[in-house]
Sequence to fold (191 residues):
Amino acid sequence: MAAQDRLARMYAVGQGVPKDEAAAAYWFAKAAAQGHAGAALALGNAYAQGIGVPRDDAKASHWYEQAADAGDAQAQAALGQYYAAGQGVPHDDAKAQSYFAAAAAQGDAQAEYRLGENYAQGRGVTQDQRLAAQWLAKAAAQNLAAAQNALGDAYAAGPAWPAARPRRSIGGGAPPRRATRRRRPAWARPI
Fold:
């Protein structure tokens, strides 16, 4: 199965063989069917993006789930997003939260950000500003711009956060709001 995964990766980039996305997907499927988590993740990505196979969210979620069950953090984060959006699977905030938590426990920045957003908005969990800020700070420390922006919003809004923030959809939505910078009074400025 490792050889099949390697061959698929060679086809995917054209290393030693002509680049052939369909052949890459074929060999990823062979390896994934035998339980190779990396191949299952790659096949999930192929179905999610329509690379070498027709775009199919249900098949993408199936392969993400196989990789997630094997402990792959990227697959767990992707599957969490699928459950949060109801994309290829029924919408389920609690399941999304559990997949985000599993991926975040492995240090996945995107999952840490989603956990923070979920705690801020109370999606799939009880709303908790302290936990939201902790998860957003972890993601922001990994230079995830969306988390840095959300954390900045939290600090700017103070106790009113997250009620002062507009809700954003999982797949995009409104552009990030910029926090307004307040000038310090003259007595509080450094000398």
Q: What stands out?
A: The radius of gyration is 20 Å.
